[in-house]
Amino acid sequence: MSVTYALEPMAGSQTTPTSRFMLWIDGVGSFLLCVGERVTVGGPRGSNVEQPAADIAFLANLSRTHATLVRKSDSLILEAHSTASVDGRVVRDFESIVAGSSIVLGNSVRMSVSKPSELSMTARLDVQSVHRLEQSVDGILLFAETCLLGPSTDCHVRCPAWPESVLLVRRSNEFYCRSQADLIVGDEIANGMTEMPIGSVVSGQEIRFRIDAFGESP
Amino acid sequence: MKFTFPPGSKPLDGYTIKRGIDRGGFGEVYYAISDAGKEVALKLLQDNLDVELRGVTQCLNLAHPNLVTIFDIRKDADDDHWIIMEYLPGQTLEAVLDANPDGLSSAETQQWVSGIASGLAFLHECGIVHRDLKPANIFRRDGVVKIGDVGLSKFITHSRRGAQTESVGTLYYMAPEVAKGNYGREVDIYALGVIAYELITGNVPFDGESKAEILMKHLTAPPDVTVLPLVVQPVVARALEKDPRSRPSDVVEFATDLQQALGGFDVPQNIPESSFVNSKPTFGEPRLSEAFRPTEPESNAAAGIGPTIVPMQPVHEERTRIPVQVADDKRRSRKQTGRRDDLRQPQQRVQWTAEPSESGDGREHVSWWKYFAIGLLILVFISPRAVSAVTRYSFAEIVLIVLAILAIRALVNVFAKRKSQRDLPSSGYEARRHRKDDELGVTAPYPPDSTSRRRATKEISRALLGLTPDDPRSISFGRRLTELTGALFLAVPFTAAITAGVATLTTFLPNNSQIGFFGLTTLLGSWAVLFSMKWCEGLGDSSLRRIVLLIAGLSVGFGAFWLDQTLMVDHQFAVGHEPHGAMRFIGQHPLTEADNPFQPTIAGYMAFFVGLFALRRWWWHTDLLRKGRFQLHSALFTLALGYVLTAIFLFPHDWGMLWALAISCVVQLSAAWMPAETYLRTLTPGIAR
Prior knowledge:
The complex is a heterodimer. By secondary structure, chain A is mainly β.
């Protein structure tokens, strides 16, 4: 069941600016990490370079800022700026999103929402339609505080071949990782919660991944 | 899954590797981005360079919507070759099948098959055969099916057809004729038939406990098409024909036939009840393999939302088991723990097949029976009086108890096998992962010279001959009878020759009665082994074989005693060492006459031959698939066993050892045996052209 909220405009509220990162996992896939309370979703960047693109910019016939995904407390809300629906219901202003919700933007961009772990507020968006971002991704993670990568089904990113799960923790725009498996971050052996500098490679038995800033020139 | 290059590497100028995608027999595939932002797949060629480069070069300028585009081939600073290909972000068919373990809908199946057929038809038109068609090589992007990994492709012009002898492809989709190294575009049609089967049912038609078993099924076993809708059965069965000449002449023909057969499921229509095997009321759309779940066919038809489906048994219950699918638990557990080992490691594979089980499967539950029975048997033989005193059973009763234990063990073994077979995932991700672990690799590790071609074919043969005498396989009654008759016939001259040799070259047989006795007993023992082991050949159950051998030993012991009495063999003049076996009695029965230690009693003969037969793996002497026709070490080992038995039982040393050696030699020389290549040819005459 969804609830329509009469929210105060959030533009003026204290929010963390959204940052985007790419998570590259060997043998698994590529994932867009969106960090922040407000994540905009829209179409491709226009010719006006001054106008920023949406955080999640589909190559699709959408408004530049078609909708905004808002994390408020422990709930996720879709704020529609143009035609959008959640589970078949047209969203006029706001609509809450729960795990299993299906979001349609415009007439064709379809996404499903999942929250594999009850212990984490991080949600995962999977594009169900043929649309794609500028860069190929296998999933979009609305990163809250923590995110789980590993072999079990309650992980946000399932890595079947991994021997152990890896917990990613975000503090501001810094990432940390922790695992039962022996990990090497960059050139150093991880010990407990270990900071992952952006661009460093984390590796272990059957495990290897890296987080880059999104859109960073290769 | 470890890759050579970590994310962020730039081994190839102008491209940055972002992550590894997959590893195959030919090398590693990476997702990379060019400096301009173009997404590509980079394939690093590590093995099989010549084959892969040749294949890719052929396809470099081919363009078709259903083929993955190859952009370029480049060399890095280390002179390693990289193939730059179109990156396809969508799912592979393998992933789709993982997500749909019971198969896909009719419409989806048609879409996949149609796309694959279109791409293959184009390749075939260009004179190229793909040779490694499998779900992991098939992609779908924005609804368009694309075939990738054309690196194994090879020209198949008619004039060069006879030269196709490199072994390539992936085990589950490998056509039988690939084992011969003589194949054409029909291997792709076969692979597409397997894929169509898998799309509909979620399972491959030929699965097994080992690579050898799967290969054997490809070569000999008919596919179980009864799990398919009846209208689809002949179409898929034809694509899976062993003889490539019996398959559809081109891939489009197959796709069209399949589309027509599947088409009936998308249009509401009444299907006669007779069209289905073991039918049960069910609701048709959309999953073909589950197309017949219980439902109300009338309302369904009335609503016009799907076909009126007639009753059909659940798929999993109606499947018929192919005899060779009977599992050996030990090997199943190996499959579960085993890693990929490809055709390049035949010896390692054989060793893998022979190592003991370490995982907890049904085999472990029954192993103690074996040790208990053998221990009891040894105890009875060593100290029958003590055993009789403790158990209050006579020797005969204890032997019966041991037989019963072995029989129970054999039964438990059979049930345990069936249980473990049920417990194994037959479909879905786990099953597919097992398959992937066991894949023969997408390897064509041989440059196109004649030596490597021979090696390639030989290694597939070896893979098949990884099928040891312990492995279950199906053997026709006619073949069994023919081989047995020949062996029994051949045993006569070989026995005569050996007896004559012993009589003339040694002093062990000083008179005619002893010569006749030795020869006839040797022949009797050889026939007993040949007959019983041919009867059990291919059954794959060593417990059953041991029971049969034990009974054969009792019979031969009785027969030897009868011959001894009939021929009135005079043991007073026996030559050789006086028997000094540790056991002089079995129960109350002496093993030799009280006044002549050279004269065994019926108990003595029976004890010796039971020991000789039951303690030796005689099926490794007689099986068609044994390593060689005659193996000296086997004969010597049997001779040693004869000595040990005469040390345990009070039985004449020389007779015991001579019989052991003679029977081993006669049996090995007489039993049918075939070299690998000959055996392969006999399996599928249709492909030996």
